[in-house]
């Protein structure tokens, strides 16, 4: 009888660490080539947030009998990128604005305490600064706040609602918004 050929013998090629590393490098080059090839023909879509006509919203709110506090105008290059209005016995108005540098400024008004709004929108443990004088149609004395991240806020009670202007913009930019606040009827 003859011996069984090839049973229990290793394959015809030599296995080595160098061969394994070479195979891994070839695989990485192929995957990298596919990624580069796909990236060369892909375009990243640009996103421009919607610029909201907040004055039209304010006009509609005023027609419903509510007198919201709002900026009469925004500095050049600024726009409102989001808004929320919750009608009812205790209406809430939120305007999210973007500065010309892309920084955030928020305006929130609600029948709630200033402390509650500051803790909700600025920081759970804000630092309260000195009251500041910023003349506007709705008031002249504003409480000031900061948080550990560098955000600032100004708040005041206007009638029975609290108004909060806050965000990552500079204190001067926030003061500009505060100075433009009004409750006058929207023209047009």
Automatic annotation (TrEMBL):
<keyword id="KW-0812">Transmembrane</keyword>
<keyword id="KW-0472">Membrane</keyword>
<dbReference type="Pfam" id="PF14030">
    <property type="entry name" value="DUF4245"/>
</dbReference>
<keyword id="KW-1133">Transmembrane helix</keyword>
<dbReference type="InterPro" id="IPR025339">
    <property type="entry name" value="DUF4245"/>
</dbReference>
<feature type="transmembrane region" description="Helical">
    <location>
        <begin position="20"/>
        <end position="41"/>
    </location>
</feature>
<protein>
    <recommendedName>
        <fullName>DUF4245 domain-containing protein</fullName>
    </recommendedName>
</protein>
